[in-house]
Design brief:
two-stranded parallel sheet
Length: about 475
């Protein structure tokens, strides 16, 4: 298997470049959408888009992760895509189900709005329903590429989709288009990565094995699906529940804050596509030490990036938010969301480690419990406190699932994923962000505290120097 240093540096570099492109494109799309649509209409669009994204993810039935689990465990075949037979069967099942889901969403869009969704959501749900199918196909093919250690292509294509969306929305804005034009641009952009992945696969050498779907794939897929419902549900269901519990304007405020807050998780997202297949391969060979070392390196680097991003939001969040219009009220929401991401990132990737070791049930159960807690808290807090209440609910859920996942990791494998010193620093930084979000401390002081934590990590954590030497040695 490829050297860990080169895999992480090249893989993470591609992910970072793609994520930065995605963030820049997303930022541009937000600017354009907040200018094309009113705040209430943007709230309805954000609600519907999150429904579509969630359904596109769930329609795969977890088979994309089962595909990754099967293919990544086999011996590497340089220049060859393994598992063509299996991916064809998974695609038929996932895309077929996604088509049924899209039709049902289109048909029942008016009933969903009548049930309490933001005013105007019916139009967006029906108009964006067609995107469910290409989103599902993209997820399957990206997992296939990732399983074959082709991290770059699986990560770049979503960035291309984001760039295409921004470009098409730019044309809509330039020519004065309305809601129908926005919906057409979003659906067209969702098709782009699926087409690129199909063309890429056809141009490469392929090997059919592994080719057969087994009962184990379906059972693991159901467990992965349960885990994903809880994990991505926390990421997507927050805005959907907020739409039923509050106003379209509050949904718009939360949508802007949560989209910006995702930058805090940038490092964790950047390392995960490389870490997951490598961890599976290490664990399949019984090399627990290598898997644990890579876990800690990815955890440390991702935490440092999270602290830097959160410090930037604490200091410059207000001027950034006002660039979108009347969204200065999202500052508190942004800091609380960032606190949740810092807490989760600091815990590392215990769920991924457990999944690649074959333990999926306990991790999935934890996420289901966290989703239930988040949902109940949103429904309790959002009607009164709006976007801030929703952010608090998600912070509690993310923090609980991070801590509980570490506990399960230690219980199942004996691996302690977070040392005491790291936990103390992480707790202090999260407390600072919450204090800033609730107005107890000024933003500049919160930012200074986070920067101090970052400096201490660089000065006191031995692995920082090791990682730095690897970068310089490349």
């Amino acid at each position: 298997m490829r050297d860990a240093r080169r895999s992480y540096l090249s893989g993470a570099a591609v992910v970072w470049a793609a994520r930065m492109a995605s963030f820049a494109s997303g930022f541009a799309s937000l600017l354009l959408l907040t200018r094309i649509l009113s705040q209430a209409t943007f709230g309805a669009y954000s609600f519907a888009m999150n429904v579509v994204l969630l359904l596109g993810l769930l329609a795969v039935l977890g088979l994309d992760r089962a595909l990754l689990y099967r293919v990544a465990a086999t011996a590497p075949a340089p220049g060859v895509l393994k598992g063509t037979g299996l991916v064809l069967r998974v695609t038929a099942a996932g895309v077929g189900f996604a088509g049924v889901v899209a039709i049902l969403l289109w048909a029942f869009a008016p009933q969903i709005e009548a049930a309490g969704a933001p005013l105007g959501a019916a139009f967006w749900l029906a108009a964006l329903a067609a995107a469910v199918v290409p989103l599902a196909l993209t997820r399957i093919l990206a997992s296939w590429m990732q399983a074959n250690h082709r991290v770059a292509i699986g990560i770049i294509v979503p960035a291309i989709s984001d760039a295409a969306r921004a470009g098409l929305l730019g044309l809509v804005y330039l020519f004065g288009g309305g809601q129908a034009s926005v919906a057409g641009a979003v659906v067209a952009a969702a098709i782009v990565p699926a087409v690129i992945l199909v063309v890429t696969a056809l141009r490469l050498k392929r090997r059919r094995a592994p080719r057969r779907m087994m009962l184990e794939d379906l059972s693991k897929g159901s467990l992965f699906l349960t885990q994903r419902i809880a994990n991505e549900g926390i990421r997507r269901l927050d805005l959907i529940l907020l739409g039923f519990a509050s106003t379209g304007a509050e949904v718009a405020v939360y949508a802007v804050a949560s989209r910006l807050g995702e930058l805090t998780e940038f490092g964790r997202v950047a390392f995960k596509p490389t870490f997951v297949p490598r961890a599976r391969r290490h664990l399949a060979r019984g090399d627990d030490d290598s898997a644990q070392r890579e876990f800690r390196d990815a955890q440390l680097a991702a935490t440092m990036i999270a602290l830097g991003a959160a410090a930037g939001f604490a200091l410059l969040g207000l001027p950034i938010l006002t660039a979108f219009g009347d969204y200065s009220g999202a500052y508190a929401t942004l800091l609380i969301i960032s606190a949740g991401y810092v807490a989760l990132t600091g815990c590392g990737m215990p769920a991924s480690y457990l999944a690649m070791s074959g333990e999926v049930f306990l991790s999935a159960a934890l996420r289901v419990a966290a989703l239930v807690i988040a949902s109940v808290l949103i429904l309790l807090l959002a009607p009164t406190y709006g976007a801030v209440g929703c952010a608090v609910a998600i912070f509690v859920a993310r923090t609980l699932v991070g801590i509980a996942s570490l506990a399960v990791l230690w219980r199942v494998t004996g691996f302690c994923g977070l040392r005491l010193s790291g936990g103390a620093g992480l707790t202090a930084s999260v407390a600072l962000l919450l204090a800033g979000g609730f107005g107890v401390l000024p933003g500049w002081l919160v930012s200074a505290g986070l920067v101090l934590h970052l400096v201490l990590l660089v000065a006191l954590e031995p692995r920082v120097l090791v990682i730095a030497r690897k970068v310089l040695a490349k």
